[in-house]
Amino acid sequence: MIFSTPIFIFLFLPCILAVYYISPSKLKNTSLFLASLVFYAWGEPVYVSIMLFSTVFDYMNGLSIEKFKSQKKYNKAKLVLIISIVGNLAILFFFKYSNFLISNINQLTTLNITPLDLKLPIGISFYTFQTMSYTIDVYRGEVKAQRNIIDFGTFVSLFPQLVAGPIVRYKTIAEQLKNRVSSINKFSEGVQRFIIGMGKKVLLANNIGMLWEQISNSDLTIASAWLGAICFSLQIYFDFSGYSDMAIGLGKMFGFDFLENFNLPYISKSITEFWRRWHISLGTWFKEYVYIPLGGSREGKKKLIINMLIVWALTGLWHGANWNFVFWGMYFGILLILEKLVFLKWLKRLPDFVQHFYTLFLVVVSWVIFAIDDTSKLKIYLQTMFGLGNVPLIDKQTIYLFCTNIFLIIICIVASTRLQTIINTKLMNFRHEGLIYTVKNICYITIFIVSICFLIGASYNPFLYFRF
Questions:
Q1: Pick from 180, 206, 222: which residue ends a domain?
Q2: 289-308 pLDDT, tens per residue?
Q3: Where are the transmembrane segments (predicted)?
Q4: Which domain holds residue 14?
Q5: CA 270 → CA 281, 308, 413, distances in Å?
Q6: Which of 76, 301, 401, 432 would be 68's cystine partner, CB 3.0–4.6 Å?
């Protein structure tokens, strides 16, 4: 089940909200935990057992680590931490990367190992990272072990962010699991945020995504290749940030405050800035639990380069079990190393529009690497983008696609800028608060109704990050 479906909006969400708000305070986490299990089991009932195992496994690990540390048995506490990390990664590897490993072994050897063809459990990358961060933080002494298994289960399975993040670390919501305040204003903020996210996903991502699908499956010209790359760049941003907005909005409806996951990444003036604004929770996770423990930048340039390459290779693999994701991660890793060690200080001296062009050019190219998992097709697409080979600059089909979708493209580009923030700031200073309140609500209602109409009539409603 995903958020942008009528069955979630009109059946599941109203039912769980009703049950949640009529439940006594002591049972609210229980109702939310059970609802999350139903949400998860809706599409994959068999894999609920994996999430429940991860929950119990790390619940016990957290208690054991804290117990051994209180007894000053630090070696035993460290051993439990290692067991937790290895256990979580083993589950993730088995379901997500076993076929990838088998495929590569078969290609490099004369072996013919039969692929396992396992279906990827939804959200496994997200909740695995969450439970790992919990045991690590308990070991570090940054949080106390959770003794209520229902509360811990709620943290692991929390359906608003279970499928696609943001990656919620236990220490950021530990207090909220015990004491959180629900109010009409907060609920209203949640509804508004959910609607904005749904509009991004249904009205922008889905429609610009159809243009990308059409271009990527047709004969390419240089112009159409770049148009398709720009369309996918816009699709993945509105798809993922829209889903994050819906998750944050749902969290508010249940009294939670999740951290932001996107901050207008396409206004960035460097790749370094881009990754401070894109998928913030993932970048923070890798920084705190991989990059810094490896030594970060404390041990010289050579060690820094090695650490960054490791982090970005893992970041690429986290997104998918295919070589294009590894290439994508290493692509960004190399760019970030070059910026950090060579030319970031020079880049900042250039005019803003040059910095923006530089960043967007490299980011758009990166999304082509991300989008195409067939290496031969990826090579052809990149060659076409840069005019390598006997390909025309433009044709009538490209002109037609561009002209018929020009308004959608412009809306998507404008929506990825600071315009919304600027408008909100100006509206806050407007004297007629009642009028502004009415207009904003009319806009939210309109976005909701139009989105539902698109959902009911559309056959194209993918969710790009579902596979992660």
A1: 180
A2: 999 998 887 878 888 999 99
A3: 6-23, 32-57, 77-95, 304-321, 327-346, 353-372, 399-421, 442-460
A4: 6-180
A5: 19, 17, 18
A6: 76
